[in-house]
């Protein structure tokens, strides 16, 4: 066990779908943390587990959880984070080596897609083509428990941003999230780009709503950020395909707040749901 370290950050979960003026989210991550250490796997290093808290961002130690996450991402690390739905594994979406390692930690075949997360709805268009979407649509449904599928933009395509070629090979759609979690969004902003984000469990196993539920995998992460128990039904985000230019959409996976999302798209934006 390594030395005890005090690190704080901010983390929230969205309690409702974002309004047209942008979502207000409510805090769920809990009180000030202590960091404990678990022996790292293979690398011979230590994995730091950090309790993240909603309202305090910097303590007397001068250490900040967002900064710690960004440092780990910058060196090609895989981190575990609490989102607004379940816990997730994340890495820099631009880093080929980090993405390959994320697939290894997850135990996922490389052909199975992994979504990305960005800090704000305005960033979604850097990675997915959304010129066909009504103005204000993304801001209405994001941030929140939604993964939006769009045609992936090529780097340099009129401002398109790069992601690793190891991420979603041979797939022309990209899933983009803006989680209703201030902590994850702040990490994305400070990182300066998208993070690849997948659920914190081995492929085929149940998703996790507390850090202790994937304790066996801590050693494969560079940092574990513990926001306490996330009180959802383990559904994960709702995945909606908005890539069509025919004013329709398709629910690929029913998750958190699926019915509310369908209502917003049908009633407020006059889109047709397709099978």
CATH-assigned homologous superfamily:
DHBP synthase
Total domains: 1
Count of runs of 4 or more consecutive helical residues: 5
- What structural category arises from helix and sheet content? alpha/beta
What string, H for helix and E for strand, traces the elements in order? EEEEHEEHEHEEHEEEEHE
Q: N-to-C terminal Cα separation, in Å? A: 52 Å
How many strand units?
Answer: 14
CATH topology: DHBP synthase
Oligomeric composition of the shown chains: single chain
Strand order of the largest sheet: 3-4-11-5-6-10-7-9-8-12-13-14
Share of β-strand residues: 15-25%
Mean pLDDT across all amino acids: 82
Spatial extent as radius of gyration: 18 Å
CATH architecture: Alpha-Beta Complex
**Dominant shape:** globular
- Briefly, what CATH class? Alpha Beta
Name the poorly predicted regions.
Answer: 1-45, 54-63
Query: In this structure, how is the largest beta sheet organized?
Result: 12 strands, mixed
How much helicity do the residues have? 10-25%
Task: Name the descriptors.
single chain, 275 residues, alpha/beta, DHBP synthase, twelve-stranded mixed β-sheet, two-stranded antiparallel ribbon, 5 helices, 14 strands, 17% helix, globular
Report on this structure.
51% of the residues are buried. It is built from five helices and 14 strands. Strand 3 (36-39) and strand 4 form a beta hairpin. The longest helix is centred in the middle third of the chain and has 11 residues, at 96-106. Mean pLDDT is 82; it is low at 1-45 and 54-63. The chain is 17% helix and 21% strand. With 275 residues, the protein is an alpha/beta fold. The protein has one domain: DHBP synthase. Helix 1 (65-74) crosses helix 4. Strands 3-4-11-5-6-10-7-9-8-12-13-14 form a twelve-stranded mixed sheet, with helices on both faces. Strands 1-2 form a two-stranded antiparallel ribbon.
